[in-house]
Every structure is written in C-alpha cells, then in structure tokens.
C-alpha cells in the first residue's frame, strides 16, 4: 500500500466531552478529534440514540486554483459543530431544469403526490441556494456508545456514494439519512460529497486526468480510513455501497485500485460501468472546449493553460459555468489511470479487486424514467432499457466477480408499495431508486402520501439486516443470514421483496439472464 495514502493518523485525545452548548435548538454531543479538526456531534432528530457529525470537510475548498483540479487534503484545525450538512456540489438539475417543472402541467397531472416527491428526489431539484463549489464534505452517523470508542470492539463502517448520473447528487437529500440504518444495525455510516458534471468530470487536457469527482471519492475514503477509529469504527471493515452512478463509481474504483482498495467489501445497487457511457478523452474534451469557448475562455486552438486560468477566474461564477454546461454531457472519461478502455481484458488479467461483493438491481429499473420520455416525446422501452442498462450488466459484473474468485452475492429487488407509485393508475413496480428507500428506511413524506405499511417496514428491516450482515462480516455474514453465495448455474439469485415478503426465494441466473 502507498504509505502516504494509508498512514493511520493517531490523534492523542480521541473522545473529549464538548462544552455544554447548543445551536438552533440542538444539543451538541461529544467531540471527536479528526485530521479536519475537532468535530462536535448531536443526537439525530429522527433517532436520538444515533449521533450525527455533519458537514466535515475532507478536502480544501475546490475553488480558485483548485477549481478543475485534483482535491487536496483539508488542512484546517478549527473546531466544527457538525450540526449542518455542507453545501451541495453544483448540479445541473435546478428548479428550472427539474424533470417535472411547472411548465409541464400535463405531465405533473399524471403523477401521484409520492411520484412527484420521488422524481424531485431523483433529480435532486429544488435546492439551488445550497449549491456551492466549496462542497467537499462528509457526514458520519454513530450509534450512541456505551463507552469511549478507544475501549472495546470497533464497529463496521459503511460509506455511501450517491447517484445522479454524474450530473447531480447530494448527501443532504433526506433519502440518504443514515440514522435509521445505524440505529437498527449498530454500524457506523458515512456519506460523502463529490464533484459532478463539469466540476467533477471536466474533460480538460491540462493534467493526467479530468475525473476529479473520482479523486474526491478516493480522498474521502482515505479520510475515513485515517479517522473512523476515533468515532469507534473499524478501519479494517469498511464497505463501500452506492446506487446508480454511485454504484458505477464503485465499479470504476474496483479497477482503479486493485492492489490498494483501502476498503474491505463492496455493495453495488443498480449500477455498473456499462450503465452509463464512458467518454473517450476526445469526447470529453469536446464538451470542455465548447463550454470554454462559449464562456469566452478560448477554444481548442487556445493554449490549454490560458484556457484553464480563465475558467478558474473567480469572476466566472458557478452560475455562469452551469448556464453553458447544462447544454453538454459530462461523464467519466478514459485516462488509463482511473478509467480504462479495456475492462474485459483487465478483468481477464486479474487487474481488478477481489473483494467480497453484494450486487443487484431492481426488477423494473427504467419505469422511473417515464417522466423524461413523456416530456421528450420519445417513449422509453422500459423492459429493454431495464435489461440493457441495468440487469444484464449487473449479471455480467457478478459473473466477473465470481470468476475472479471473489465471494459474491446477487439479488433482484421486487418491492412494490402504494406509497412508491409514480404515475396515477400505473403500477411502476420496483423501479430505479425504489430499493434505496427500503435500505435507508426513508419513505416519501408529504401531503397526499401514505405512510409505510407493515410489509414495507418489515422488508426494509430485512434488507438493512442483510446489508449490515455483509458489512460486519463480508466473508460469512450473508451466508449466516441464509443467503447462498452466487453461482450462476445454481439457485443462488435472491428474489428480494418477492410479493413484498421477506421470505427467501431463489432462482438460477438463467431465469433473469436469458435475454442478455
């Protein structure tokens, strides 16, 4: 391992009592010393036995000369109150660009109250003022300790990476609140912000990579490794888990750091490298040069360093950049360091992590994209998109993992509940992101939205139990939970939430993979 990356940083005073104080009606709890300074937590409003440490910076603000640049470790030492989430990294979906804007009343009229809430969550719309380039923070949820974290056994750690098609996403979204999971399963949860769209995947040609969002993820993982013991966590039991682009990120990560993954296990929900396009360097640079040209910073013929200097000018605001950037596509691009052009060959050569893997997808992934298809006038073939974008790549990735010798578990999610219906009179089934509500226990709320029923609550509890069993013991935990290790030729694919039940139902892979 690279020593400077994996140096475990010892902090002399691990767990100190904070001075009696409160902020905005929230009582501050104990302080934890970290490499980012001393951080005070507070009881979660949802689960008072869980303590939140929010908005902890893990990198220097990516502004000025650090805009469109690799992240640098945070060097501040001021005390932090940990009461509020940090800023959301600038997003392309804003109030004006939501999938369900007010100028599409005919579309909105077709959706249930819960459907509008789900789509608002899905697009991360509605919080424009919270967008800020100074966004590289993370959040920690910790079970109320019976003793100081330097005494007794350490807890398993789970790091959440959000989705959003590499365009959008935010840890502060209510759907990713870790308190219910932590309260039930006695693990530590961390969620991390990373740059997206042009700020995270710029396509510029000034350095060895422009996949800055992936470097953000790596730096956050290093921060967790170096600091989580001070919260009572076990740095030898860190599980990455994510959904959609977050899951794609984990797939990319598994190839980028085969010998130095830091983490001990991975959970991939509805996302693999093929789920979203990967740009060539030429394609990525095209988006960059067209944007820089439109902003008056120069086109492909201009000196790259001069273009970059202009694009980093503080007079060029975030809003200025996003106004042009939303016209273009921003995705991970091949750099042969973090993103590669030859994944099948790399897998065959063993250039991939062999960490235990839990992987799966929902049964009707593409149903959530119905809003886009209604507005664009280009209907989506839901079964075809579900298979080609999600189910078949999931099957292929599970098979790669098994072939590499890694212990692998595979599921297909079927949960289908009234408060997760998107369109009026249309059963969406288990759509993209619907499993996340079950994993976190964060159901849609609001006027006209029914609460979670008994079956839904039971399934969520069962899934959190499975995810946590894997995180606590990635080699044997799921087997002890009753799930068989995935073998394509045997009945080892778990039907998760089949008929909204927690009953264990198993299939051969061919039941779902015959069309792949």
TrEMBL record:
EC number: 3.1.1.-
Pfam families: COesterase
Alphabetic keyword roster: Hydrolase, Signal
Domain Carboxylesterase type B: 31-374, 385-503
InterPro entries named among the record's database cross-references: AB_hydrolase_fold (IPR029058), AChE-related_enzymes (IPR050654), CarbesteraseB (IPR002018), Carboxylesterase_B_AS (IPR019826), Carboxylesterase_B_CS (IPR019819)
Key word S-adenosyl-L-methionine present: no
Recorded GO MF terms: carboxylic ester hydrolase activity
Domain of life of the organism encoding this protein: Eukaryota
UniProt signal peptide: 1-16
PROSITE patterns, per database record: CARBOXYLESTERASE_B_1, CARBOXYLESTERASE_B_2
Similarity field: Belongs to the type-B carboxylesterase/lipase family.
Protein name: Carboxylic ester hydrolase
